[in-house]
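To whoever is on call:

I kicked off a structure prediction for a single chain this morning and the downstream step that reads the tokens threw a length-mismatch warning. I double-checked the sequence; it's 246 residues and nothing unusual in it as far as I can see. Pasting both halves so you can look.
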Amino acid sequence: MKLLVCVSKTPDTTSKISFTPDGSKFNDVGITFIMNPYDEWYALVRALELTEKSGGTVTLVNVGGPDNDQTIRKGLAIGASDAVRIDAEPKSALFIAKQIAEHARGQYYDIIFCGKESIDFNGSEVGAMVAEFLDLPFASYASKLDVSGSTATLEREIEGGVEIVEVAGPFVVSAAKGMAEQRIPNMMGIMKAKSKPFAVVPPVAFPDYAVPVKYTLPKEKTGVKLVPADDMDELVRLLHEEAKVI
């Protein structure tokens, strides 16, 4: 079984979010970065579990600069076989998906994994775009995945229940909570990661049509207003004049 796991670098969940003065990009001064949890805890670990059961390899792919290397090395320490970093500054989900798809094209991966979303942008776009570029089936938000031969059975949580789907490989899947359990790299894994294959390749030329122009923070939430239980007129006034449906 030959598997590909897409991994990205994201700010730690406790980071205070701000942007540069012109709003053109995220302000990363003083920010601690981690591997995107959905990529690490669910996509990568489930891929490793499948190869441990049936044999095969797990390749990591990342789009980014040298500052992503530490994040990728962690994935190797957890157990991935090798890694590829596409040496480009990611500008949009479309650009990232194109680069991953062009790397995967002709490599004959049985399954391409990605986390359901990155915790910084929460876009849930890359997996579907990769599948579209490669003309492969795509299963989103999978919380369980089992493989028998060339067919995979997946579970997806939906409103009021669980949806079970079957898909024949190769395919692309985005992993959600429940797919696997987090693994902590041990000392042996960390030492082995230093000698595992790690290729850095140039990006393919691509006219990016979806580059964000400006970022802004949402307005700060206002305080809670308490209305006396017997003052219905004031409650109605607030609902009409100040309450907003989000």
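Update from on-call: the warning came from a stale cache, not from the record. Cleared it. Sanity check on the structure: The chain is about 25% helix and 25% strand.
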